[in-house]
Design brief:
The chain is α/β, with parallel strands linked by helices and about 290 residues long. Helix content is about 30%, strand content about 20%. It has a domain of about 200 residues: TIM Barrel (Alpha-Beta Barrel). The protein binds iron/sulfur cluster (2 copies). The site of one iron/sulfur cluster has 13 residues, from loops. The site of one iron/sulfur cluster has 13 residues, from strand 9.
Length: about 290
């Protein structure tokens, strides 16, 4: 039997599309979107989650979640009963000092700390990244450092990784997913680049995150124990099926599907398969047991 994940349900929640960086390769639109940052209504979200009777793992993504005006209060509120996974560029130094002091590491399932080298050089520094990383690490947070291996950076990555290692940061390259100079990535990395850059298991996972061909009737846990939550709080199956809704994180969760459904989408760019394999395996095992 696949081990039970820490929570019943995983929400990937795009809490803001605004960011404090302007990466040239940004996929989330943060280079152009400058939505006004407003505090999240933590009490309303907690009411929705707590009333459902489920335990949630909330994966906060953006944009950059940590620039929300009440980010630390949001995480503290959510982690009273639930769990948080965070994806961040780690650039809001003062916010993370408060986060390290006030948030319980036992309730944070992981922090994905993306290192964006050109923005670090323009707006911050390698040393500031390392200082915040080491602060969080020393407090017991589970950290993952990744360096987006954009094809334009291939000539410098090895040196950057060495420099970060010297500052105490163990960082892994992560494949770039998208188009560059009319070539599609990650498919266009050479075999040699692949061997140098990526651990095979991580690479394979990222591959699966970008299904281009039709999934042709795959069973998918979206809507069963993994969901997408948009900036306005709307809860959907995934970013492909935004119209199939399950309520709103501010006003009420309608509950999950009773069974894992077959997906007939022709494309899927949702990250569920690679990052939420444990929810998929557990859900499938539950379904098998029930049948
Ligand atoms: S830090 Fe992330 S969200 Fe912000 S601009 Fe860079 S890639 Fe986009
Ligand atoms: S589009 Fe992808 S994430 Fe959405 S239901 Fe289909 S396979 Fe699952």
């Amino acid at each position: 039997m696949a081990p039970k994940p820490v929570a019943d349900i995983h929400f990937i929640w795009e809490v803001t599309r605004t960011c404090n960086f302007r990466c040239a390769y940004c996929l989330s639109g943060s280079n152009t979107v400058r939505e006004k940052l407003v505090p999240v209504d933590v009490a309303a979200v907690r009411r929705t989650l707590d009333a459902s009777g489920y335990v949630f793992e909330l994966n906060l993504v953006g944009g950059e979640p940590s620039i929300l005006p009440n980010f630390v209060d949001l995480v503290r509120g959510l982690t009273q009963r639930h769990y948080v996974f965070l994806t961040t560029n780690l650039a809001a130094d003062a916010v993370f000092e408060r986060f390290a002091a006030e948030v319980d590491p036992a309730r944070i399932t992981g922090i994905d700390c993306s290192f964006h080298v050109e923005q670090r050089e323009q707006r911050s520094s390698f040393e500031k990244y390392a200082r915040t990383w080491n602060l969080l690490k020393d407090r017991g947070f589970k950290l993952y450092a990744n360096y987006v291996a954009h094809p334009s950076l291939l000539g410098r990555i090895a040196g950057d990784l060495d420099r970060l290692a010297g500052l105490g940061v163990a960082i892994n390259p992560t494949p770039y997913i998208g188009l560059w100079e009319d070539r599609k990535y990650p498919d266009s990395y050479t075999a040699e680049e692949r061997r140098f850059l990526f651990k095979e298991d991580a690479y394979a996972g990222k591959w699966e995150a970008h299904i281009d061909a039709a999934p042709t009737e795959v069973l998918c846990n979206a809507g069963y124990n993994v969901f997408w939550v948009a900036g306005d709080g709307t809860i959907s199956k995934c970013t492909t099926y935004l119209k199939k809704q399950y309520g709103n994180i501010y006003t009420g969760f309608a509950g999950p599907d009773s069974r894992i459904q077959v997906c007939r989408a022709t494309t899927c760019s949702c990250p569920y398969y690679s990052v939420l394999a444990h929810y998929f395996q557990y859900g499938m095992a539950q379904m098998a047991k029930a049948s």
